[in-house]
Amino acid sequence: MVADPTTWLLLAAAPGLIGGRIRVTTGGLHWPRFVTLTDLAIDADGAAGGPAFRPADAPALVSWTTGTTGRPHAVVRTHGVLAAQHAAIQRLRVPRTGDVDLVGLPAMALHDLACGVPMVMPPPAGGDDRGTRLRALVARAGTTTAVGFPAMFERLVDGARPGELPGLRAIHVGGAPVGGDLLDRLALVAPNATVVVVYGATEAEPIAAIESTELRSLAGRAAPGSGMLVGRPCDGIDVRLLPIDGRPTLPTPGAVPGRILVRGDRVARDAARSDADGWLDTGDVGTIDSDGRLRLLGRASNMLAGGVAPAEIEEPVTALEEVAASALVSVPSRDGQRLVLAVQPAVDGAGTDLQSRIASMLSERGWAVVRVAIVRRLPRDARSGKVDYGRLRAMVG
């Protein structure tokens, strides 16, 4: 446990933390039974200590998932997995001399440290900031690259002038659905940046990636309901689909949905979701097109009977002029699970009429959604911007 002296005093009431085997305090003060960061860097002979050898299968990092799709769970990354993820990220985000990185993901800060790249982290949002403080930080620090959830970049472009951030050369955005509107605004505000959409998971990052220029060139070619395009698998990872029995093809010719499985030396094992051959079930459903590009269709847990994926329903509904967003959610009931479509109107005050029209639309297409629920706002995780399905279930259950 590492903390500053003031925090250690506050932690005195938390036995589970104060009782940690290794207690480290920042600063130069020496307390009984505590060590400083400097102490950790000095060996028994008083010389600067070097890196300690650890086997590849030894635990290196424990990360907690956001819990937006279920109960949060810990992911243990070994030294081997962490090193492989670091190498893959370095291939995807090639560092240059003089780079300064804006980091919205804590694990990426570790990656930057290993690359010798200075980083800045976004200040807390609050009030009517409209991204002013974040853009001021980017300009003041001479930031050249940025990585984070869409929510961080929505804040970055909120209220920005065209061309306001010319110093950014590369932007990597992912961890939640990325809308075309955000990509357009990033291109306008940071005209010199290459923008890349990245698909990954805590257990396996990165999985796939695609540049926004390719995304925009393909926009409109796929039928509504074909899912979110996230690109081709990155080097060093195998991706395959586990077929869904009895599932017909999507409107896109030849696209047959399946559960997305991944395998490779950068994929952490999970006792509940990894098989004996190392394939990890991501919990997502998707398709792979004839060019090897992956499309996401949503979480497998929110699929309808017969294998209808969330995106097949959400995308046509969200395309309606009166709808700002929609999300299909599985809600427990006496008869098992039932599916509810939560709809956020584009204009406050929409109600019964919109609800009945969407219900009729679903019925005409044979989609067995139990209920359409109009909600003022879809609940989202503050950091990632993902729909918080736990809170949504509580709202519409």
Descriptive account of the structure:
By secondary structure, the protein is α/β, with parallel strands linked by helices. Among the domains are: 2-40, no CATH class; 320-396, ANL, C-terminal domain (GMP Synthetase, Chain A, domain 3, 2-Layer Sandwich). 26% of the residues lie in helices and 26% in strands. It is built from twelve helices and 19 strands. Helix 7 crosses helix 8. The protein is globular and about 80 Å long. The mean pLDDT is 87.
Topology:
Elements: E1 2-3, H1 5-10, H2 15-18, E2 24-25, E3 35-36, H3 37-40, E4 59-64, E5 74-78, H4 79-92, E6 101-103, H5 106-115, E7 119-120, H6 132-141, E8 145-148, H7 150-157, E9 170-174, H8 180-189, E10 194-201, E11 204-211, H9 212-218, E12 228-233, E13 238-243, E14 258-263, E15 280-288, E16 294-299, H10 310-318, E17 323-333, E18 336-345, H11 352-364, E19 371-374, H12 389-396
Parallel strand pairs: 1-2, 2-3, 6-7, 6-8, 8-9, 9-10, 18-19
Antiparallel strand pairs: 4-5, 10-11, 11-12, 12-16, 13-14, 14-15, 15-16, 17-18
| CATH hierarchy: architecture of the domain at 320-396 | 2-Layer Sandwich
Residue share in helix: 25-40%
Biggest sheet: strand arrangement? 7-6-8-9-10-11-12-16-15-14-13
**Average predicted local confidence, pLDDT:** 87
* Approximate strand percentage: 25-35%
CATH superfamily of the domain at 320-396, please? ANL, C-terminal domain
Looking at the structure, what is the overall shape? globular
Radius of gyration: 23 Å
What low-confidence regions span 5 or more consecutive residues with pLDDT below 50? Answer: none
What is the makeup of the main sheet? 11 strands, mixed
The SS-based structural class is alpha/beta
Query: How many strands in all?
Result: 19
